[in-house]
C-alpha cells in the first residue's frame, strides 16, 4: 500500500507502511484492495470518511477505482452508514470525475488547505454522498 501510495501522491504526502499498518488494524477502518489499487474509509458513527483511494499509474483507466469505491459504498450502506465524506485537492480532475460519477456532490471549498512543496498551497473540495 505504501508503495502504491508513493507512486500516486506527492500532495498530500505519501503515507508510510507503519501508517497503513495502523489504519488496517483499526476496527473503524474499512479497507478494499485490488491488484495495484486500494481504498480505505474510516467510520465515525453514522458517517464515514474516504481516507484515500489509489490506483498505481500502470493500472489506471481499467475501472479499478470505480470498483473499489462501489464495493466500499455498498459495504458501508449495508452496515448502516448514512453518509460518506471526502476531501480532494480541488484540481484533481480524475478523482473529482470519479467521485461525481459515484454520486458525490460538492459540499464546500477550502482555500489554501493543503501545504505543497516550496510553501505552495492548494485548495480542497469537500464532497459528500448520502447513502
Ligand atoms: C483517481 C484514481 C484513483 C482513478 O483510478 P482509476 O482506476 O484509473 O479510475 P477508473 O478506471 O475506475 O475510472 C473511473 C472513472 O473515473 C473517471 N476518471 C478516472 N481517471 C480519469 C482521468 N484521468 N481523467 C478523466 N476522468 C477520469 C472516468 O469517469 C472513469 O470512467 P471511464 O474510464 O469509463 O471514463 C487514480 O487516477 C489515482 O490513483 N490517482 C492518484 C491518487 C488520487 O488522486 N486519489 C484520489 C484523491 S484522494
Write the topology of this structure.
Blueprint: H1 2-8, H2 17-25, E1 29-34, E2 37-44, E3 47-55, H3 64-78, E4 83-89, H4 93-101, E5 105-115, E6 121-130
Parallel strand pairs: 3-4
Antiparallel strand pairs: 1-2, 2-3, 4-6, 5-6
The structure holds coenzyme A.
Walk me through the structure.
- The longest helix has 15 residues, at 64-78.
- By secondary structure, the chain is α+β, with helices and mostly antiparallel strands.
- The chain is globular.
- It has one domain: Gcn5-related N-acetyltransferase (GNAT) (Aminopeptidase, 3-Layer(aba) Sandwich), CATH 3.40.630.30.
- Helix content is 31%, strand content 39%.
- β3, α3 (64-78) and β4 form a beta-alpha-beta unit.
- Bound molecules: coenzyme A.
- Coenzyme A binds at residues 8-9, 52-55, 60-66, 88, 92-95, 97-98, 101.
Broad structural category: alpha+beta
Secondary structure: helix percent: 25-40%
What is the CATH superfamily? Gcn5-related N-acetyltransferase (GNAT)
Describe the biggest sheet?
6 strands, mixed
Instruction: Give unreliable regions as ranges.
Output: none
Instruction: Supply the number of helical segments.
Output: 4
Task: Tell me the name of the CATH class.
Answer: Alpha Beta
Find the CATH topology. Aminopeptidase
- Strand arrangement, major sheet: 1-2-3-4-6-5
- Taking all residues together, what is the mean pLDDT? 95
By CATH, the architecture is named: 3-Layer(aba) Sandwich
Label the overall shape: globular
Radius of gyration, CA atoms, in whole angstroms: 14 Å
Whole-number tally of structural domains? 1
Number of strands: 6
Amino acid at each position: 500500500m505504501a508503495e502504491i501510495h508513493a507512486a500516486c501522491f506527492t500532495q498530500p504526502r505519501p503515507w508510510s507502511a507503519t501508517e497503513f499498518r495502523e489504519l488496517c488494524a483499526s476496527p473503524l477502518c474499512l479497507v478494499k484492495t485490488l491488484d495495484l489499487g486500494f481504498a480505505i474509509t474510516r467510520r465515525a458513527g453514522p458517517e464515514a470518511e474516504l481516507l484515500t483511494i489509489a490506483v498505481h499509474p500502470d493500472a489506471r483507466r481499467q475501472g479499478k477505482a470505480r470498483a473499489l469505491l462501489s464495493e466500499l459504498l455498498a459495504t458501508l450502506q449495508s452496515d448502516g452508514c448514512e453518509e460518506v465524506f471526502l476531501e480532494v485537492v480541488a484540481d484533481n480532475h480524475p478523482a473529482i470525475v470519479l467521485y461525481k460519477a459515484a454520486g458525490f456532490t460538492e459540499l464546500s471549498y477550502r482555500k489554501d488547505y493543503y501545504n505543497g512543496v516550496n510553501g505552495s498551497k492548494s485548495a480542497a473540495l469537500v464532497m459528500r454522498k448520502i447513502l
